[in-house]
Write a structure and sequence with these properties.
With 199 residues, this protein is an alpha/beta fold. Helix content is 69%, strand content 10%. The protein contains 9 helices and 5 strands; from the N terminus they run E-H-H-E-H-H-E-H-H-E-H-H-E-H. The protein has helices spanning 7-14, 19-26, 38-70, 75-112, 120-128, 136-151, 164-167, 170-178, 187-198, and strands at residues 2-5, 33-37, 114-116, 157-160, 181-184. A 5-stranded parallel beta sheet has the order 3-2-1-4-5.
Length: 199
């Protein structure tokens, strides 16, 4: 069985939002082939880089507030200062945890998954299909999956993506169904379905 995953699979593990995705990545069933479009690795790295910039901006603003409050000698200010400093420490700890989980999941995914490499054919398909007009990366991801699925018509295929705003659209579900790909927007739902298949 083939399971296609994309950038949000990796990012949800990194952010601690999907422990079941983390478990699936660490201990996939032996009959399950995990496939990832190569562009997802690039997108996840740029997403992490962007989030690190947001984090630095947040910390700069927090430091400004801490400096302002330090000048105030009132009891409220001392209490607020304590909370702000604790918030800063907790925020840094979480940022480090996210980065650590990202590194582990990224390396695990690279070492255990099969990568769908971009090709001229995939780019041609991407240019010819009028979908995700403002989300070119999502369009490329979808075309990678559709292209690969067409090469494996006799295998069971699943696409797992929490990006249901894009991949959960009716027209996308129809395209996936045409290639006999079942879509799941939650790891929990996929695992429940997988369990029912083995009964």
């Amino acid at each position: 069985m083939i399971i296609y995953v994309e950038t949000n699979f990796l990012m949800s593990i990194a952010k601690g939002q999907d422990s079941q995705a983390q478990e699936l990545l660490q201990n996939p069933p032996s009959y399950l082939r995990i496939l990832v479009p190569s562009i997802c690795f690039v997108e996840s790295l740029t997403t992490l880089e962007q989030e690190e910039k947001y984090n630095l901006d947040f910390l700069r603003n927090l430091d400004i507030q801490i400096n302002q409050v330090e000048r105030d000698n009132s009891s409220n200010a001392r209490l607020l200062l304590s909370h702000l400093e604790q918030s800063r420490t907790s925020f840094l700890q979480r940022s480090n945890e996210v980065k650590e989980r990202f590194d582990v999941a990224f390396n695990r995914l690279i070492n255990t998954s099969e990568i769908i490499t971009l090709s001229k054919d995939i780019f041609r398909l991407t240019l010819n299909r009028a979908i995700f007009e403002k989300h070119i990366i999502d369009r490329i991801i979808l075309e990678c999956i559709i292209f690969h699925a067409g090469l494996h018509p006799n295998e069971n295929k699943v696409f797992l993506s929490s990006n249901y705003k894009e991949f959960g659209r009716r027209e996308v579900i129809d395209i996936l169904r045409d290639r006999e790909i079942q879509y799941f927007n939650k790891t929990q739902n996929f695992l429940g379905w997988l369990q029912s298949q083995s009964n």
